[in-house]
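FAQ: What does a ligand-bound record look like?

Like this one, built around NAP:
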Amino acid sequence: MNVLSIPSFTNLGYRLHSRDFEPIDSDLTGQTVVITGATGGLGLAAAKKIAALGARTVVVARSEKKLAAVESSAEGEVVTYKADLSLMSEIRRLVDELLAGEERIDVLINNVGVLLPERSVTSEGLERSFAVDLAGHFLLTNLLADRLVQSSPARVVNITSGGMYSEKIRPHDLQNERGEYKGSAAYARAKRGQVILTGMWAERFHGTGVTVHAMHPGWAKTSGVANSLPTFNKLMQPLLRTPEEGADTIVWLAAEEEPAKTSGLLWFDREPVAEHIFDRTRESAKDRAELWDRLSELTGSDFPEHLRSAAH
Ligand SMILES: NC(=O)c1ccc[n+]([C@@H]2O[C@H](COP(=O)([O-])OP(=O)(O)OC[C@H]3O[C@@H](n4cnc5c(N)ncnc54)[C@H](OP(=O)(O)O)[C@@H]3O)[C@@H](O)[C@H]2O)c1
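The answer part, i.e. the structure of the complex:
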């Protein structure tokens, strides 16, 4: 991966890469797939395809109206849970409801993500983009780890962004308090954090039958991009991928056999790709450990210790 491959994020890249793609046709009957932030954009495109493949598809988002629209329009078995995923208390309530309502969770797709031009803080005191893009994923995955292992073979799929190639993690400033706040940099650092966590969860789940994957979708036409990057959205319109093209690798990672033979990798258009373009973004082992400890402290959660000791 180098800077020259950035044009591959467009629909031209998708056209080129997808020439040899086989249609995704796995039968997911009997499986339950949970996907966050799936009332619009890539999440909705992925949820529709996953439901059409036969999975019980659990859509999580915050708008009751949009959730009802998804439930009534999708083909297949789609159920919805309402939660504001910027709030750790709502994620804890959601997990209680999921554990009571879903006997198995075969796939967890951490898709929700926001790029916020202005810095803001949730009612729980966390910087909002950090809360949605990183802390929430950390909490949800740790709290669902036992159910994933009970349902294994199972998978976690984390949706990151190519934007993370420009940033290094700052474990000491996860909430973007130092210096001037820049939405795209805050977003990119959280997305970098997701890639790091993918590797750390892969180590922790090792031997349990749960694999962990990260992917970035390139640039796709969604209301998230239109609202958070209006100029980019306008200039790039003819080159943006459709939501279905952006979601292709999400569905492939969730459904097909091949990716489940691996764990801890970053994928783009169904291929494993490098986690860094620039040396300056590389984190140390100390950074990784600090990231985990800080997230653990801020969310009051950790990976279940008994799963680690059972697997190793
Ligand atoms: N589109 C791209 O080109 C692109 C590129 C790189 C990475 N990504 C990543 O791909 C993922 C999906 O992006 P997208 O462009 O499809 O986003 P999107 O169009 O903004 O859709 C995001 C979804 O998340 C929901 N959501 C937002 N905040 C929420 C919250 N606090 N609680 C619960 N649900 C919430 C939204 O519901 P509401 O309608 O209620 O807000 C919507 O269903 C994100 O992680 C994004 O960072 C996208």
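Follow-up question: can I read anything off the structure? Yes, for example: Strands lie at 32-36, 56-61, 78-82, 107-110, 154-159, 210-215, 265-268, 271-273.
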